Amino acid sequence: MVNRPEVETAEQRTGKALAVAVPKFLAVMGERLGLEPKALHETVFKTCMYDDATAEEFRTFLVVAANLDLNPLAGEVYAFRKRGGGIQVIVGKEGFQTLTNR
């Protein structure tokens, strides 16, 4: 019998990417702001997300913010619920100014 390695699904790859990106983003941003990653996680979730946001939607929001290197606490990026469910991440005016200045 041939021992074949399991093929990784797109969902598993996405999960792994999120598992790496979110803690790194929280650590880097937390260091910049002088906050512990856990405290930053709680603050961003409570102040920047809509009331019934899921953990997956929050992670997606953080990944987009991390990829763009934008600060959600400074109003550079916002999270909105899509009509059919899910999340829509919007770059605000301050975010565009940050991106342009870079």
Describe the fold and architecture.
- The chain is mainly alpha-helical and 102 residues long.
- 58% of the residues lie in helices and 10% in strands.
- It contains four helices and two strands, in the order αααββα.
- A two-stranded antiparallel ribbon has the order 1-2.
- α1 packs across α2 and α1 crosses α3.
- The protein is globular, with a radius of gyration of 16 Å.
- The protein starts with 9 loop residues before the first helix and ends with a helix.
- The model has no long low-confidence stretch (mean pLDDT 82).
Short description:
With 102 residues, the protein is mainly alpha-helical. The protein is 58% helix and 10% strand. Helix 1 (10-33) crosses helix 2 and helix 1 crosses helix 3.
Please describe the structure with a list of short key phrases separated by commas or semicolons.
102 residues; mainly alpha; two-stranded antiparallel ribbon; 4 helices; 2 strands; 58% helix
